[in-house]
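Thread amino acids onto this structure.
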């Protein structure tokens, strides 16, 4: 008898079941089998029919509305069969069957609402992922003469969307990279990140001076935000083995060299983009094998039990092996383990490696980039 009901139930499920629907269906069928066994063991009368209303309720916690409806129909059919074979049909028995029908209708409606909400959330998550990918284009594994890898770690499981940004471009003035963090989250942050990146992708090819790049980005931000909005950013240029960094209120990049981790602090602090920063470049001469980690403040603020993730202490062990992509994968794994899988903020990471001069003649380096004082 129950197998016939199950066949009817399965025939109604025309599409493949999701894991939640399979779990709800399985739990409901186990309950129906158990109650049917009780009824048959009891023999005389139909004493457990009301409990069959729990089957669609149980399914509604996980399954789609179609599965809930099918389970409710199965419970109703079973109850009707037991009532038919009972010695006499009592008014309470018919009331129990009516209760099963009513409960099935209610929980089917609830499951339908929950399913629509879940579909809307899934669609929003998909659109957010598409928006994020449109803003943050894939970079690497090679940009100009540098090996480069990037990674975006979202603090939420539902959507990879936020205001962290990065880009690496091969320009006539060398490889130029930016990493930044927009104040705030959500679509407004993504909109501002897209404005910054769009402007950067243009001016990085046009401006010989990184300070001019920063000025252009600052104007783009100021035109697009309110008085309290801003973007922290670090802009990096590698040209012929010379590394130049300008920093606008952003965490300093980390230089990994021969087992050492060196924070590249700016010569003087500067405010974020949107607050008219006046930057002073920091210049370093790179050595073959040097790696540079750019990151947003989500990495520095990641903590567990009040203890911050020891980025500088573990950077060489995590980032100094394999390819740059391998290094970022190791850093992400260690970070997620450190915070027990719960991040409070999104994190953008860029890791680059300098392999050394290719032997091509180096482009002329303006005097400001090597620290000379202009007259």
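Threaded sequence (375 positions):
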């Amino acid at each position: 008898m129950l197998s016939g009901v199950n066949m009817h139930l399965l025939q109604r499920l025309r599409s493949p079941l999701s894991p939640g629907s399979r779990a709800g269906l399985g739990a409901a069928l186990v309950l129906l089998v158990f109650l049917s066994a009780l009824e048959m063991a009891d023999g005389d009368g139909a004493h457990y029919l009301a409990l069959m209303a729990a089957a669609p309720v149980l399914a509604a916690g996980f399954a789609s509305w179609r599965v809930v409806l099918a389970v409710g129909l199965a419970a109703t059919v079973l109850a009707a069969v037991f009532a038919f074979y009972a010695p006499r049909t009592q008014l309470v028995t018919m009331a129990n069957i009516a209760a099963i029908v009513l409960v099935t209708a209610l929980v089917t409606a609830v499951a339908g609402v929950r399913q629509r909400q879940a579909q809307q959330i899934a669609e929003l998550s998909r659109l957010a992922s598409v928006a994020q990918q449109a803003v943050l284009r894939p970079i690497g594994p090679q940009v100009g003469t540098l090996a480069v890898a990037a990674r975006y770690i979202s603090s939420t499981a539902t959507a990879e969307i936020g205001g962290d940004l990065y880009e690496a471009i091969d320009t006539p003035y060398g490889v130029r990279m930016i990493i930044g963090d927009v104040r705030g989250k959500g679509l407004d942050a993504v909109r501002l990140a897209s404005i910054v990146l769009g402007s950067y992708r243009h001016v990085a090819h046009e401006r010989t001076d990184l300070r001019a790049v920063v000025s252009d980005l600052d104007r783009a931000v100021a035109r697009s935000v309110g008085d309290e909005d801003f973007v922290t950013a670090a802009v990096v240029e590698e040209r012929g083995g010379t590394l130049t960094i300008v920093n606008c209120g952003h965490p300093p990049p980390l230089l990994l060299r021969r087992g050492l981790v060196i924070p590249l602090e700016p010569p003087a602090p500067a405010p974020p983009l949107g607050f008219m920063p006046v930057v002073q470049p920091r210049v370093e001469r790179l050595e073959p094998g040097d790696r540079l980690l750019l990151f947003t403040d989500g990495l520095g603020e990641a903590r567990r039990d009040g203890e911050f993730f020891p980025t500088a202490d573990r950077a060489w062990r995590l980032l100094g092996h394999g390819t740059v992509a391998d290094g970022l994968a190791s850093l992400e794994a260690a970070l997620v383990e450190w915070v027990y899988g719960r991040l409070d903020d999104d994190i953008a990471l860029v890791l680059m490696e300098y392999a050394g001069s290719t032997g091509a003649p180096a482009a002329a380096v303006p005097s400001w980039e090597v620290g000379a004082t202009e007259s």
